[in-house]
Design a protein that fits this description.
- The chain is globular.
- About 35% of the residues lie in helices and about 15% in strands.
- β1, α2 and β2 form a beta-alpha-beta unit.
- An 8-stranded parallel beta sheet has the order 2-1-3-8-7-4-5-6, sandwiched between helices. Strands 10-15-9-18-17-16 form a 6-stranded mixed beta sheet.
- With about 650 residues, it is of the alpha/beta class.
Length: about 650
């Protein structure tokens, strides 16, 4: 760990007038905060260690001014948080809390505490204040605070979403209210974390001194943190009206082209009009390639361009504070790219040739229209020649409990490969004559006219969980979100039936639920068995989108996996394998009869997989607590069983040998 550097001593260097003074804060004490019950929790100490190791090995730290962390004072935290909140975080690691710590954490949304949480939270908040103050004073040109726990979800009176104190909000209010001598009157906060910065938004909802900008996955309120706070219609209130800008993605898979389109057509024009005195970035990197929670595709080059475009404002005074980002290699590469930018004042080498999604242009136009009465620069409609540059093919990420590829997503250290990895899939999908796109849309239109019953037997019996496959997002306990269907309409009907098939649990671990088995339905019927299934009446188009998400990490669906010819023949064949996704665990489409003349279909493993389970080639395994509870809630809310009966039902299915 490098010691606190003397900033003034650097100014004596003969090259100091040419070199930008870039501050870095890192403190190993923030690694003491960890989940006492889950060493594999995505928000773990290795996040900042991987960044720091990358910066040291590449020589970046030798080109920056390195500082130790500094704890925040309660009076500064009180600028945005209540006394209750401050008392909670300050005391949570004390011995007097002891065994009650886990119970207290359980009262909050996605929060854990341990003996090191208090110190880490104070260091995280204080470190962001420290570098923000030095940049505002002119001692540093820009800075990056490599901190954890993150902050942007933390609200005035409660921690939330891995966040204990709202670090960026505290530093913002500190500059505005505690240091009037610095003449910082207008602050732009850019939140590019893949999740909406709900806490930061609420803290400056009525404050015209702060322009809060957040680009995030939203999927109509189904993606974490959920609800309507992240909608584009949430623009601020009273004197703060128009100073809150949300750009809510409708789907995952967004990459460089999508983000840069938002920069060029929303953020940069508004920033010019706002003319901030300093910029604070809630720098989450969970929209990066390979992130297990984000499901987007921003490359290190993409982040570098986004940052470079902001350097033209506020005299280049930019403070970056780490938020999310859970792929260790990806987060390290992305942070390094950003620090290279603020050191050199130019993007790293790279290129981007992909087009934004069609949905991206739709969102951009909706945001511009909503804010046009506040910002003159957004009043003009974008020309057709700009918005026509788009791709229609949705990239679907396998986010379900049924992820069959458990190999960690990797991001190459070779930048050129990073660029190729993101650009090539989009380039391949860009068919100039439009024929593939036309065929795909015609196919979808036909499938959307046909209804089927999708019979669910695992976590999808819980309606909220199933809707993740339709609208996108995730529910409590899931480690990865779903992208959703192109048609986000809810099921037309829901009913329940029992079937003479065996329910069992197998596999040891999945990306979405972590360690533990997931549910399968034995493909062969047995009159001695009885399983509860929840039936959703959805379109054949939606069924295909669910079939994709159950089985693959990405797929270009120019033709359906299960088409109308398959639907006509399955009554006689009883089951059909979706060959395009045959490596998935749930590609076997099973016919279970009809309900009101409409076919009932489910998806499960093959008989050969059952044989492998019996032989021990693939492990039988009990479900994890979160997964089991999701199934139990589905059975209880569906009024099929009491909680006690549902628990017994799952336990018996998990304990019986095949």
């Amino acid at each position: 760990m490098a010691s606190n550097s003397n900033i003034d001593s650097n100014s004596n260097s003969s090259s100091s007038s040419k070199r930008r003074r870039i501050g870095l804060i890192y403190d190993e004490r923030m690694c003491k905060h960890s989940d006492p019950n889950d060493e594999y929790h995505p928000e773990n100490p290795n996040r900042i260690r991987s960044i720091w190791n990358k910066l040291q090995s590449s020589g970046i730290t030798q080109r920056c001014i390195v500082m130790d962390g500094k704890e925040a004072e309660d009076k500064d935290i009180a600028l945005v948080h209540t006394k209750y909140h401050i008392d909670l975080i300050r005391d949570i690691s004390s011995k007097k809390i002891g065994l009650r710590r886990n119970g207290i954490a359980a009262k909050f949304n996605s929060i854990y505490f341990n003996e090191g949480s208090s110190e880490a939270a104070y260091l995280s908040a204080g470190s962001v204040i420290e570098v923000a103050e030095k940049v505002a004073e002119g001692e540093l040109d820009s800075a990056f605070a490599i901190v954890r726990p993150p902050g942007h979800h933390a609200e005035e009176n409660e921690p939330m979403g891995f966040c204990l104190y709202n670090n960026v909000a505290i530093a913002t209010r500190y500059l505005l209210d505690e240091r009037p001598d610095l003449v910082i009157n207008k602050i732009l906060i850019v939140d590019w974390d893949v999740h909406h910065g709900n806490g930061t938004q609420k803290m400056f909802w009525k404050d015209p001194r702060v322009l809060f900008f957040s680009v995030h996955r939203h999927e109509f309120g189904s993606f974490y943190p959920g609800g309507e706070d992240g909608s584009h219609v949430m623009t601020g209130e009273g004197p703060g009206a128009g100073y809150n800008i949300n750009v809510p993605w409708e789907n995952g898979g967004c990459g460089d082209a999508d983000y840069l389109a938002v920069w060029d057509h929303i953020l940069i024009p508004v920033a010019k009009e706002f003319d901030p005195d300093i910029i604070l970035i809630s720098a989450g990197f969970d929209a990066a390639i390979g992130d297990p929670l984000g499901g987007c595709r921003v490359s290190p080059y993409g982040y570098s361009v986004m940052l470079h475009k902001l350097l033209e404002f506020a005299g280049g005074k930019i403070v970056m504070a780490l938020e999310g980002g859970y792929n260790l290699e990806s987060i390290a590469n992305s942070v390094q790219a950003c620090i290279e930018v603020i050191l050199q004042q130019k993007p790293i080498v790279g290129s981007s040739e992909a087009y934004p999604f069609e949905s991206t242009w739709r969102v951009i136009e909706a945001v511009r229209e909503e804010l046009s009465s506040f910002w003159q620069t957004l009043a003009e409609r974008l020309p057709e020649k700009v918005t026509s540059m788009r791709t229609y093919i949705q990239v679907i990420s396998s986010d379900s409990e049924d992820e069959y590829d458990t190999t960690p997503h990797r991001v190459s250290q070779d930048l050129e490969k990073d660029i190729e990895n993101i650009i090539q899939p989009f380039s391949d999908l860009n068919v100039n004559d439009g024929q593939a796109s036309t065929n795909s849309h015609t196919c979808r239109a036909d499938l959307s006219k046909i209804d089927i019953w999708y019979a669910t037997f695992g976590s999808n019996m819980n309606l909220s969980r199933f809707l993740c496959y339709i609208a996108g997002g995730q529910v409590e306990g899931m480690r990865k979100p779903c992208i959703g269907s192109s048609d986000k309409s809810k099921p037309k009907e829901i009913t329940w039936k029992t079937f003479p098939h065996r329910l069992f649990f197998a596999r040891e671990c999945t990306d979405t639920w972590g360690p533990g088995g997931v549910a399968f339905l034995h493909p062969e019927s047995n009159s001695d068995e009885k399983s509860y299934l929840c039936l959703y009446r959805i379109t054949l188009e939606q069924f295909n989108d669910v079939l994709l998400q159950e089985n693959v990490s990405s797929f270009n669906m120019n033709s359906p996996l299960f088409d109308m010819a398959d639907l006509q023949s399955i009554e006689n064949r009883k089951c059909i394998s979706a060959e395009a996704v045959k490596n998935g665990w749930y590609h076997n489409v099973l016919y279970l009869g009809k309900e009101n003349g409409i076919p009932i279909l489910t998806m499960t493993c093959r008989l050969s997989d059952v044989d492998n389970f019996k032989l021990g080639k693939v492990s039988m395994c009990k479900p994890c607590k979160e997964y089991a509870n999701t199934i139990i809630r589905g059975l209880v809310e569906g009024k099929q069983l009491s909680e006690e009966e549902a628990t017994t039902y799952i336990q018996e299915a998990a304990n019986r040998a095949l």
